[in-house]
Write a structure and sequence with these properties.
The chain has helices at about 10-20, 30-35, 40-50, 50-55, 60, 65-70, 75-85, 105-110, 115-120, 125-134, and strands at about 1-5, 25-30, 95, 100. It is of the alpha+beta class. The protein has a single domain (about 1-134), classed as Glutaredoxin, CATH 3.40.30. Helix 1 (about 10-20) links the parallel strand 1 and strand 2 (about 25-30).
């Protein structure tokens, strides 16, 4: 299980905070520092498609030339763009049990981690309070 993104992205911050609050341990892959492979992008594209994986709402996309945007309309062009500018990848990307989930949606995370949460795992703040009372 891994979370991919850029640390200063608000959606990534929300996802990481939610995961930490519920004690979900997960490795974080920073697109900016660690990059991303063409093979991984191809696998993700097979799961969610080009329209969902390429973030056309962000500042990076808006700053692209029309030529660059047009080149990203097919898989090869989109992969090339995402390799060059990983900030155009919709974030965060949660990889769990062979599937990926894009963006942060608390309801989706609650469903995905129901077993973790329902097995008595409290928030870290609750555990800290409990430990202090001992």
């Amino acid at each position: 299980m891994r979370l991919f993104g850029i640390p200063n992205c608000n959606s990534v911050k929300k996802a990481r905070a939610w995961l930490a609050r519920y004690g979900v341990e997960i490795s974080f892959h920073d697109f900016k520092k660690q990059g991303v492979s063409a093979e991984l992008l191809q696998a993700w594209l097979k799961q969610v498609g080009l329209e969902k994986l390429v973030n056309r709402q962000g500042a990076t996309w808006r700053q692209l030339t029309d030529e660059a945007k047009a080149a990203a309309m097919n898989e090869a062009g989109a992969i090339s763009l995402m390799l060059e500018k990983p900030s155009v990848i919709k974030r965060p990307v949660l990889e769990k049990d062979g599937k990926i989930y894009l963006g942060f949606d608390e309801a989706v995370y609650q469903t995905l981690f129901t077993n973790t949460i329902s097995h008595g795992l409290q928030t870290k703040a609750d555990r800290t309070l409990h430990e202090r009372k001992k």
